[in-house]
């Protein structure tokens, strides 16, 4: 019996590959990509004066390794739009006449706004601001440790002022649960037909491969939509998560996300030779989706190569969408990049699924 099982395992190459790949993937992802103290976080600056002190403050912020200035804006509206869309996690505003006011002793205000929808990413960087001030003052004003700072740092944690982790986790669970269930529902669809011996009846029907795929997917779109309503409803009523944006927009983009995951699951179903392999493929896809999407760990703190992989995962884009709509009140123009990315991933998965199903017919 032992010999038989080894022979069967050797013949099932997909299962054998999963045995090797799953622990290797876990080790690489946890070892290299996961960072609980994210650094080099994208930051925008609204620099209303180009003074030595202002530049020193910005340089000191970069030297902490928490802030990475990626955008320089010229209006408050651009400043707000970047935070709202999630393109930056921090915004620094240095007002006009800042250095002159410091030297006169007027204690002007330096504004640091943070996207606090991810408290882990924002917390460490905000706590490093005290050292930033001291470094800049010693460099440009040539003073030691002052009793009172000659200017004021006003920190504003937007969208989640209390740094409540549930406001970050609960919207993320919407996408995570939908990913898991939608993948499993459709990953077994074609392989189940083959194992039950009903594939011949399916092929005898006067419908095209595209119609077969849509027929398999559409019922589960409704199932996924009901799941999303339940999760969001419980999050709002039980956990107090706000919905500051449009429910209609959230429903439309959630439907797009659900369809994308169903298409990917259906693709796995056309590739796998049996239901076990389909389940294994779903797990292989679900694992990086959790780790590299920004659900468990800050996305901006991951290495660049891991972020590139994350951008190819539907969950990454949906997490940005659901958190932005529920917590920030974002609109479609703020979310157009992630919406287009979801649409592209859906079309790609559907194309591959139809091509694979046609090969099955041949």
Q: What does this protein structure show overall?
A:
This protein is an alpha/beta fold. The protein is 67% helix and 9% strand. It has helices at residues 2-11, 13-33, 52-63, 76-85, 98-104, 119-127, 129-140, 165-187, 189-196, 199-203, 209-239, 247-271, 275-292, 304-311, 314-328, 332-361, and strands at 41-47, 67-73, 90-94, 109-115, 152-158. Strands 2-1-3-4-5 form a five-stranded mixed beta sheet, sandwiched between helices. Helix 3 (52-63) links the parallel strand 1 (41-47) and strand 2. The mean pLDDT is 83.
How would you concisely characterize the structure shown here?
The chain is α/β, with parallel strands linked by helices and 362 residues long.
Q: How do the strands and helices of this protein lay out in sequence?
A:
Layout lengths: L1 H10 L1 H21 L7 E7 L4 H12 L3 E7 L2 H10 L4 E5 L3 H7 L4 E7 L3 H9 L1 H12 L11 E7 L6 H23 L1 H8 L2 H5 L5 H31 L7 H25 L3 H18 L11 H8 L2 H15 L3 H30 L1
Parallel strand pairs: 1-2, 1-3, 4-5
Antiparallel strand pairs: 3-4
Give the helices and strands as they follow along the chain. Answer: HHEHEHEHEHHEHHHHHHHHH
Radius of gyration: 25 Å
Q: Fraction of residues in helices?
A: 55-70%
What order do the strands of the largest sheet run in, or round the barrel if closed?
Answer: 2-1-3-4-5
Reported for the largest beta sheet, the result is:
5 strands, mixed
Q: Percent of residues in beta strands?
A: 5-15%
Shape, principal axes of CA atoms = elongated
What's the mean pLDDT score? 83
Distance between the termini: 36 Å
Question: What's the total number of strands?
Answer: 5
- Outline the low-pLDDT stretches: none
**Total DSSP helices:** 16
Structural class: alpha/beta
